[in-house]
Structures are given as structure tokens and as C-alpha cells.
Amino acid sequence: MNAEQGYLKRKYRCASSARPSVDQLTKNTYAMVLAGGQDCRLQQLTECCAKAAVPFGGKFRIIDFVLSNCMNSGIRHIGVATQYRSQNLIQHIKRGWSFLNGHFSEFVDLLPAQQRVSAGHGYRGTADVLYQNLDILRAHTPEFVLILSGDHVYKMDYGKLLAFHVTNRADMTMACVEVPVSGASAYGVLSVDENSRVVAFSEKPSRPAELPDNPGSSLVNMGIYIFNSRFLFDHLLRDGEDLHSCHDFGKNLIPHMVKNHAVFAQNFKHSCMGKSAEPYWRDIGSIDAYWAANIALTNVTPDLNIYDRLWPIWTRHEQSPPAKFVFDDDGMRGMAIDSLVSGGCIVSGSLVRRSLLFYDVRVDCYSRIEDSVLLPNVDIGRHVVLKKVIVEKNCCIPDGFSAGVDPEEDRRYFYVSPGGVTLVTAAALEKMAEWRA
Questions:
Q1: Domain range enclosing 409
Q2: Residue 275 main-chain phi, psi, to 5 deg
Q3: Which CDD domains match (predicted)?
Q4: What is the pTM (predicted TM-score) of this model?
Q5: CA 412, CA 242: separation in Å to the nearest integer?
Q6: pLDDT of 335-369, one tens digit each?
Q7: Are residues 192 and 85 located together in one domain of the fold?
Q8: Do 340 and 241 share a domain, yes or no?
Q9: Residues annotated as binding site for alpha-D-glucose 1-phosphate?
Q10: Which residue, among 144, 166, 125, 169, has the nearest Cα to 34 in the 3D structure?
């Protein structure tokens, strides 16, 4: 046991006969949310904004889930590191998360890449984000540093993860989740012993290790880490001076720590919030995944409960009037079935089925919207047919338009995903109009 582990054991009473005070743990934790990565897998949805700022679930942004987890877990010292296409994200956090009370040391700090340590580049990797903000981290004197990805959707009690970390006298603890081995190559894959100590770690292996007690599944890294602060600071300094390092947790720091220090992993099922059969965690990294995660919310009992008052999802509330459905004539009846319709929407004499409408969407008469996701401020004309479509925000869909009916025709103008989802954007609509003129 090193000196820092002994200090934490005395402070938080981590003897086997006593449980640590979770309130103490969360109050002494600084959460760093990594929301600046460059990711083009969502196609045009991230052309003008970071992935963490992409709308999700009718009224939220993706980053709202991780920030809400912090709030609900009792962690109120939060930094959000931004870099690529960050203006929308910065505006959302400033307008939607300014309710934290600075008089009680509650805050969400925005930390754009400022070349604070090295000139000529922004953040070079996930570890470099922390390295370049070491002075800020030290100024807050946390006992623990919690590192989070800002572009995943899930509900998790970080207090349970902190308690697990201290009880096991770990230097580092990572959260992990079981996924089918067929998709595990996209993540860091780990193996643990009977005490949950990590004994092997491989970043994006071509042949992921399977779980001995669950063949066909692998244990993968969720991008959620807890460090004893002084331990982390020492390793950030060591890595920052290594000219051969990529300055990345998965590629550099974690493999070194697994070999030389006490690294533990907690299965997500022990800290997830919700009552679904399987722990809900989504890395919305493609158009197909984004569409599926949104449409799944229209299920009678969705795996992700956004109506949970015990673990609410916080966000900026748009000042919109209630949704409205008008006309009740045969062939022109305004109605929505198995759908989520947000405030400010007006559905006039049209059918919406198994779809999700964000706020301020207008649907004119005789249109049919099925299995589709309509982002904010979309205007749908008359006699429009949309099936398995995502419509980008601020689009104006002309009368008689159809998408999702003929994939080959759609591909002439729009991106069509491998799963058959058509992405309709304002820029593509303009080009289509020019070509047809």
C-alpha cells in the first residue's frame, strides 16, 4: 500500500467492516468531461457542432446525460473540455447549466483547448486534456478525479463507482460493460480476476478476449475512470514528458498502470440507474445507432426511462407552447401514434407514427411521417411522405416530397446509411432543388 492509499484509507474508513461515506467521496471529486473529440461518423449532424451537442430524445443534447449523472450523483465540481466545432456546445452549457450556485462552489467550467502547456497544437489525446489543465485541477484540490466521455447516453450513479474505488484501495478504477464480442473491437477490452482487479487491457484488439463465464461477450472500457488525484497528476507529468507517447488513456496510460499499479474495474450493472433487463449504455457513433436510440424511446416501455423523477435528465428548457393536433376529418386527421412530440409542434391533418419530433416542428396537411426523427424547427409541407428518415434541424420540406420510400432515388441527393436510414439536410435539399430546376 502506497502513502496515498494509506491516507485515503484513514480518511474514508475503507476497512472491510465499514463503508465509505458516499457524500464525502462525491464532494471531494472533480469531474472532467471530455467533449472535444473529432468524430465524423454522424455525417452532417456534426458538421457544425460537436457530437456531445447533437440533439437527442426530443429535448436534450447528448452531453446532458453525463452532466445529469454528475448532478444526481452529488458531483458539483465539473469541467467540460471542448475543442472541435464547440460553439453550439458552449452555448448550450452556458444557457442550460448556469443554475449551479457558485456561492456553494458548484460549477460547470468550460475548458477549450488553449495551448496552455505546449504551443502549436490543441489537445493531442485524452490524457493531454488533463495534462494541459493540470493547474486548474490542482487549484480545486480534489481527492479524486473522475474522467467521463461527453458523447455517451446512459444513467449511472458515480457515487457507487467511487465507493467501489475506495473500498478496493485502488489507484485507478474504470467502469466496464459487457457487449457482444462481434462489436468489442471498437473499444478497449479488459480482463479481470475474481476480485475485479484488471489483469489485462488491450485497446481496440482485432480478436477481443471473451468472458469465461459468458462466451460470446467481452468486457469493454466505457471511458469512465476514477483516479486518486495525486497518483493521476504524477502519471500525467510522466506521460507529458514522453516524446513517444500518443498521450491517450487507452493507448498509453492504462496499459502502463495495469502492469504496475492497482487498477480495478466495476461492471456497469452495479452502478447503472434504471429498471431495464440489461444496463442501458449507448455510444451513438453512427447514423443507424442515432436513429435506433431515438426511435427506441417511442416503445411502450423503452430501455431508457427519460420520465424517471428519481434520476432526472437536466437540460435547457425551451420556452415553447404545448404540442397541438388539429383537424378531425376523414383523410385529414391530425394525430400521433406511438410517438414522442415535443413542445411547440403543430400536426395539422397528418399522421405521425412511431416517430420522434423535437420542439417547434410543423407538419402540414395530408402528410405521413413514420419511423422518423425530426430535429428542431423543421417545417413539413403538404402531401409529404417520410419513412425511416432523420431530418436535420431548420429544414423546410417542400410539398409532395418523399424520402425513405425509394432508397436508390434517395442516394442521388442524400446520405443513406448501411441500415437504410435516409439523412435529409438543408444543404442537400438546396442541391436537389437546383438539380431539378
A1: 324-436
A2: -115, 15
A3: ADP_Glucose_PP, LbH_G1P_AT_C
A4: 0.92
A5: 49
A6: 999 999 999 999 999 999 999 999 999 999 999 99
A7: yes
A8: no
A9: 123, 188, 203-204
A10: 125
